[in-house]
From TrEMBL:
One of its GO terms (molecular function) is nucleic acid binding. Keywords: Metal-binding, mRNA processing, mRNA splicing, Nucleus, Spliceosome, Zinc, Zinc-finger. Belongs to the SF3A2 family. This is Matrin-type domain-containing protein. It comes from the Eukaryota. SMART domains: CactinC_cactus (SM01050), ZnF_U1 (SM00451). PANTHER family: SPLICING FACTOR 3A SUBUNIT 2. It comes from Musa acuminata subsp. malaccensis (Wild banana). Residues 52-82 form the Matrin-type domain.
Amino acid sequence: MDREWGSKPGSGGAASAQNEAIDRRERLRRLALETIDLAKDPYFMRNHLGSYECKLCLTLHNNEGNYLAHTQGKRHQTNLAKRAAREAKDAPAQPQPHKRKVSLRKSVKIGRPGYRVTKQFDPETKQRSLLFQIEYPEIEDNSKPRHRFMSSFEQRIEACDKRYQYLLLAAEPYEIIAFKVPSTEIDKSTPKFFSHWDPDLKMFTLQLYFKIKPPEANKPQPAPVANGTAPPGVPPRPLPPPPQAPPLPPLQAPPPAAPPAPVMNPPRPPPSAMVGSQPPPPPPVANGPPGPIPPPIGGSAMANFTPGLQGLQAPRLPPPPPPPLQGFPGQQMQGQAPRPPQPPPNMGH
């Protein structure tokens, strides 16, 4: 036969006692790796040679798996029991602290009570307040409702929100009810914060006032909105002062004008300008200021025309007085209107 006696066909033969011990230690090592933390084991020590020692059993191990398999063995477990018994015998007897046993009362809840909440505002102190009125018609005899404040981080019903807190009210056999109020400091002064239980009407009344928040000095300004408008509920911001114009530079005297250049062969005035007692206008000077506009002469159509000022109407001036007559009476002066003919004198008729 090519196989050992007692083994099944296809198997490697019956395991010897040594193979079974190796397999058992490997299973214990894997189990210990999953359940035991070597960092918390007081008897686990690594020496200078790189191997591991058990300080309780004084054994040497090559790796962590070997030490963990040792901790699950009979020798290590027996030494642990002996060490615990010796420590319990040597330790002095100490009095056990008195623990108060609180018996949880199990009662049947009948539902939630009726309630009424009133919001109030004090115009003098600018404080807001809440008035709670809870009705407990089926409350147990000789019992009063209880209340307490709970932080948002203490409860497990809703998501934590630091902006709110809870006011809890309890009375047997009713369910515990809670009110979600702002997480503002409550004014605990006597006239403002009070609770009262009316045994005749079976009504519990609780009133609380919130303290006024101090003004924030370093409060950031709200972000501006498009088109220069402010968000609703925010007063409009004052307009900035208009920018100041830069100061004007001091006035400087104009540079002196150049002396007039001599005019060679000035043009003679027309004959019509020589008639009369008015002097002729001065000739134009190059690179100089324009002279005054001479008054019109005569009643011609070109009297109001000024050379070089086309499109600019000169102001009308009163006509000058007529010049004195010169020459013979019967001679017609140039530039004057003709006289009407006179009738001949009477020749004796």
